[in-house]
Amino acid sequence: MxxxxxNFSPGPAVLPLPVLQEAQRDLLALPGTGISILExxxxxxxxxxxxxxxxxxxxxxxxxxxxxxxxFLQGGALLQFGMAPMNLLRGSGKAADYxxxxxxxxxxxxxxxxxxxxxxxxxxxxxxxxxxxxxxEMKLDPKAAYVYMASxxxxxxxxxxSEPEVGNxxxxxxxxxxxLSRPVPVEKYGILFxxxxxxxxxxxxxxxxxxxxxxxxxxxxxxxxxxxxxLADGKSVxxxxxxxxxxxxxxxxxxxxxxxxxxxxMAELNRRKAKLLYEVIDQSxxxxxxxxxxxxxxxxxxxxxxxxxxxxxxxxxxxxxxGLVELKGHRSVGGCRASIYNAMPWEGVxxxxxxxxxxxxxxx
Length: 364
Fold this sequence. Notes:
Elements: E1 6-7, H1 17-26, H2 45-62, E2 68-73, H3 76-88, E3 95-100, H4 103-112, E4 117-123, E5 147-150, E6 152-153, E7 158-159, E8 171-174, E9 191-195, E10 206-211, H5 212-215, H6 228-233, H7 243-260, H8 263-282, E11 288-290, E12 301-306, H9 312-321, E13 324-325, E14 336-339, H10 346-363
Parallel strand pairs: 1-13, 3-4, 3-5, 5-8, 8-9
Antiparallel strand pairs: 2-10, 6-7, 9-10, 11-12, 12-14
Helix pairs in contact: 1-7, 2-7, 3-4, 8-10
């Protein structure tokens, strides 16, 4: 059997080992069915039970209020960049406010501009997206169609510690890279969405949590597959959904509930992992340089540079030799990036921290 390494990829990302093992056991035939999850009908009672269990798990973990729908869609976060303005902005006669804190919120803002008027309420570009805005820096329109944010920027490694105050304007949030990593007050959001391949499951399914009253804003002339109301009325099976990906979401949320003990426990573990890496960076006397300002640092994605770029390739090569892979940083930031999502075990982070200290001592 191939030996597993510690995979620090930003996504598709590491999955919990117990989840992979259960999926492996059930792949040939789900218990009691004689049919693989890859073959099962999305109209069957067995799949209906699976998707309902996945939704119920999400409602339990996030304490989702009863006036919110949970949708299992396709197309990733990128489709949501367009769907949110299609449903809430187009034809509204209003503008949407965007908090541009990194690559993905910038892309979302560009996509929204194809559907209507947008206003950049705050832009982190002057600092190369190394922090999130302070409350008094956001220029929000109290009559905006919605306010858009990315709770965590995967590339730049900045994260909102709490939700911005937006009054009665619906808050739309891309939570892809910190979804299920901590408790979230869902009632503060109009729409909360996340592609699954960071913390919730494999690539292929996108989870959208949307408040009931916003469904009425979906224009009737939208195609069915981008109309939130139609998709909600179809209960996520308007067409054939990504059955295997939804099944894995069910397994991951089972793991979070039964083995981790909920999102408060998961958040505590995640903070400990991030603290360990940031301490190595901060104590390296400049050998490692973090990208994000301390007050905006992500608990999920830790981008850092080596002061001497000539050390980058030797660092990555030596790390891979220790079974620490997918650490190369994004081209827009450079250097390295450790994505330490829920399923990254403490042992992997500890091994990376020890290696970083050793590499620093040998090359400082």
